[in-house]
């Protein structure tokens, strides 16, 4: 009797320990809270009784199944906003793809808690409003795709803090204002097409083809070939030298006139002065 009870207790303890150890229980709860609070036209096989790591569509866990590190749910037919305090609890997530849905509302501000994100794919949704002001919270961000939404306002300059960024896609939104100086050497892909951006293309981004900027209201400088960054200081001496040229010509005329009074008549002096001015 006693032996049997102890054996059963050990078995129970062992299985419950195993389940707790092989399932990211908190992350799973966060996903259920997310899915239960957003309309989706395609069903998802997210059965609470099954393993999120091995059986749930779109979910990827880390090596020991203790955390969810990627969520890919493209074209599930989501409609409406993402409820706060749901996906933002997936604190270990690195890849988030919710592309090609009908998600609306602002960029979820609580995503700022997801500091391990390396890739954000939210393109082709119905997001609107301003972009997050402080991008420096995603230190490891490499791919940011927010194209085909209704984001407005300006492009935050804090994007320039993303030293790992390789791809930035903001095309087909309603972004306005000037393009900030995004001096990011790692950046390889840029798409700012079809917005309402104005002003010049900053020097740091002139290495990208002009097609990356089409469909905006940018000043014509952007069609000029890349200019060396030393241009503004070097423009001053050239202005100075043209001023020097002017005073030199004036000197020739004055000197000639003084000489002219002595040697030549005024008419000859004038014509020499005109020749010098040419
Ligand atoms: C859950 O995943 C495991 C491992 O891949 C598999 O053996 C099992 O058949 C799956 N169960 C269901 C109901 O899909
Ligand atoms: C990144 O993920 C690790 C677990 O893999 C976690 O401990 C850490 O808190 C996460 N960092 C942030 C900023 O959320
Ligand atoms: C996007 O949102 C607007 C209103 O903000 C709505 O009229 C439109 O139908 C939505 N489009 C999609 C694809 O959900
Ligand atoms: C970023 O990446 C580095 C190196 O891969 C890693 O050590 C770090 O935990 C990641 N997360 C954050 C929030 O920096
Ligand atoms: C970003 O999304 C657009 C669709 O709007 C797609 O054409 C493009 O290839 C994507 N870029 C990256 C780097 O994922
Ligand atoms: C952005 O759009 C919202 C409506 O979605 C509007 O209230 C707001 O004034 C716009 N902001 C800018 C800077 O255009
Ligand atoms: C970059 O991040 C630092 C802090 O990490 C912040 O002080 C600075 O303002 C940020 N730069 C921009 C352009 O936002
Ligand atoms: C913007 O929309 C047009 C027309 O729908 C499409 O051809 C183009 O690929 C879109 N651009 C991006 C960056 O998704
Ligand atoms: C750009 O701004 C003008 C008004 O300033 C507006 O009529 C137009 O719809 C805007 N275009 C986009 C793509 O937001």
Automatic annotation (TrEMBL):
Domain of life: Eukaryota
Signal peptide stretch: 1-22
Coiled coil: none
One Pfam family in the UniProt entry: LRR_8
Transmembrane annotation, as ranges: 244-264
Record-linked InterPro entries: At_inactive_RLKs (IPR050994), Leu-rich_rpt (IPR001611), LRR_dom_sf (IPR032675), LRR_N_plant-typ (IPR013210)
Region (Disordered): 214-239
The protein's name in its UniProt record: Leucine-rich repeat-containing N-terminal plant-type domain-containing protein
Gene Ontology CC terms, in alphabetical order: membrane
């Amino acid at each position: 009797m006693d032996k049997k009870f102890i054996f059963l207790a050990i078995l129970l303890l062992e299985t419950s320990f195993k389940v707790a150890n092989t399932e990211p229980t908190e992350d799973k709860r966060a996903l259920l809270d997310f899915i239960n609070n957003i309309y989706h036209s395609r069903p998802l096989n997210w059965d609470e009784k099954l393993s999120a790591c091995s059986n749930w569509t779109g979910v990827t866990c880390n090596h020991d199944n203790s955390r969810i590190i990627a969520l890919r749910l493209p074209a599930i037919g989501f409609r409406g906003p993402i409820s706060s305090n749901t996906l933002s609890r997936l604190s270990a997530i690195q890849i988030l793809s919710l592309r090609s849905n009908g998600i609306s509302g602002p960029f979820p501000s609580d995503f700022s808690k997801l500091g391990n994100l390396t890739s954000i794919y939210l393109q082709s949704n119905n997001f609107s409003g301003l972009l997050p002001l402080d991008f420096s919270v995603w230190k490891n961000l490499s791919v940011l795709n927010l194209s085909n939404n209704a984001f407005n306002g300006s492009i935050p300059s804090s994007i320039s803090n993303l030293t790992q960024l390789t791809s930035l896609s903001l095309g087909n939104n309603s972004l306005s204002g000037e393009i900030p100086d995004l001096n990011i050497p790692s950046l390889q892909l840029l798409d700012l097409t079809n917005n309402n951006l104005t002003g010049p293309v900053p020097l740091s981004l002139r290495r990208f083809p002009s097609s990356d900027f089409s469909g905006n209201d940018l000043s014509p400088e952007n069609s000029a070939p890349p200019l060396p960054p030393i241009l503004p200081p070097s423009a001053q001496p050239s202005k100075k030298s043209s001023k020097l040229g002017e005073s030199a010509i004036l000197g020739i005329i004055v000197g000639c006139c003084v000489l002219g009074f002595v040697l030549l008549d005024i008419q000859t002096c004038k014509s020499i002065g005109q020749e010098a001015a040419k």
